[in-house]
TrEMBL record:
One of its GO terms (cellular component) is chloroplast stroma. Residues 292-383 form the ACT domain. Its EC number is 4.2.1.91. It is an enzyme of class 4 (lyase). This is Arogenate dehydratase. The keyword Transit peptide applies. Keywords: Amino-acid biosynthesis, Aromatic amino acid biosynthesis, Chloroplast, Lyase, Phenylalanine biosynthesis, Plastid, Transit peptide. It is found in: Plastid, Chloroplast stroma. It holds the Pfam family PDT. One of its GO terms (biological process) is L-phenylalanine biosynthetic process. The lineage of its organism: Eukaryota, Viridiplantae, Streptophyta, Embryophyta, Tracheophyta. Pathway: Amino-acid biosynthesis; L-phenylalanine biosynthesis; L-phenylalanine from L-arogenate: step 1/1.
Length: 389
């Protein structure tokens, strides 16, 4: 799988994509151009005062190239020479063939477990690094990428709450899940031994998954955005007193030494990732499906019992239940004041159950739940990953 998967040479997508308000067609093409011109490099060179005229010239050339390549996107004000020209079928077929390789957003930098999960979920995809979870959601929403693959729970560390909140705030659909065995290593620069270490850097989930080992070693934990980012930092700054908890892949990429392998507290350390898309998939009954929903209830004795009974009475197995305090900023803005949206009950319940939305039992169960739930949304109905991680 490694050999067939190429990485995006662009620097991680960051929150600047908030300002991208282009139409999807143009954004897709602009992104292809960005692959050749790293975003950060372009920003920093044009902001430096020296060589300003050179930059202006480069910008002009860039704009001219854009006008030539994408005439349909510019009106006569932008391009004095011509009115927009319709797309030719050659341009369209080019786009289709180039676009056939799926671009998949993940959070972190190269070597993160999420990158491996993206590659497992979509073999031969182009994995696109994003700085934050929110950025990955937005990248899909704004058509910068085709899908996102994000962690949702780990067998040792539990739920990734941030992603539960983001699932509600954004309008993406869960179209699949993928489970990945997480095997952590303790990494350090060459020449550094375990006894030299005072501190260790990693993602908070990874630090939590290695709690016993790190406590035994007496290392101070420092949380960073992702495991591979920790490895990169240790290597880049040539730290001699700090190690990183990350994957073997990260060790190879950043040229670090592996001081210890499999340092997670339990050998069965598995993270479940969700595959997200702009459109839902059509649920089937040809293979085992799972459905994820979120709902809220009125306050009162036995309300949750009553809600869960709609599944039990139809012999539907629940695989996960998560309750999250209702946060104003986690609400999907357009529905904020929609009738029936929870105003008083302070919790949202996220439930995964083993049935497809094409299954009559699931439809009846949700119809029943809707009769008394104050809010309900189906987050996705998708094939279950029942294979070995
Ligand atoms: O830091 C990484 O490498 C990630 O991919 C993130 C992440 C997470 O968020 O849980 C993914 C899998 C592991 O459980 C540890 C960290």
């Amino acid at each position: 799988m490694e050999a067939t998967t190429s990485r995006s040479p662009i620097t991680p997508l960051h929150s600047q994509i908030k300002n991208t308000n282009l139409n999807p067609f143009f954004t897709l093409k602009l992104l292809k151009r960005r692959r050749k011109i790293p975003l950060h490099a372009r920003c920093s060179s044009s902001s430096s005062s020296s060589g300003k005229s050179n930059n202006q010239k480069t910008d002009a050339i860039e704009l001219q190239k854009l006008i030539e390549d994408y005439p349909y996107e510019f009106n006569s004000k932008d391009s004095p020479s011509s009115l927009p020209r319709p797309l030719t079928s050659a341009q369209l077929s080019n786009l289709t063939s180039e676009g056939s390789r799926l671009r998949v957003a993940y959070q972190g930098v190269r070597g993160a477990y999420s990158e491996s999960a993206a590659e497992k979920a979509y073999p031969n995809c182009e994995a696109v690094p994003c700085e934050q979870f929110d950025t990955a959601f937005e990248a899909v929403e704004k058509w910068l990428v085709d899908r996102a693959v994000l962690p949702i729970e780990n067998s040792l560390g539990g739920s990734i709450h941030r992603n539960y909140d983001l699932l509600l705030r954004h309008r993406l659909h869960i179209v699949g899940e993928v489970k990945l065995a997480i095997r952590h290593c303790l990494l350090a620069n060459h020449g550094v031994e375990v006894k030299d270490l005072n501190r260790v850097l990693s993602h908070p989930q990874a630090l939590a998954q290695c709690e016993n080992t790190l406590t035994k070693l007496g290392l101070v934990r420092e949380a960073v955005d992702d495991t591979a980012g920790a490895a990169k930092h240790v290597a880049f700054h040539k730290l001699m007193d700090a190690g990183a908890v990350a994957s073997m892949t990260a060790a190879k990429i950043y040229g670090l030494n592996i001081l210890a392998q499999d340092i997670q507290d339990d050998s069965d350390n598995v993270t479940r990732f969700l595959m997200l898309d702009r459109e839902p998939i059509i649920p089937g009954i040809d293979k085992p499906f799972k459905t994820s929903i979120v709902f809220s209830l009125d306050e009162g004795p036995g309300m949750l019992f009553k809600a869960l009974a709609v599944f039990a009475m139809r012999n539907i197995n629940l695989t996960k239940i998560e309750s999250r305090p209702l946060q104003k900023q986690a609400l999907p803005t357009p529905d904020d004041n929609a009738p029936g949206f929870p105003k008083y009950f302070p919790y949202l319940f996220y439930v995964d159950f083993e049935a497809s939305m094409a299954d009559e039992r699931a439809q009846n169960a949700l119809g029943h739940l809707k009769e008394f739930a104050t809010f309900m949304r189906v987050l996705g109905s998708y094939p279950a990953d029942n294979g070995l991680p």
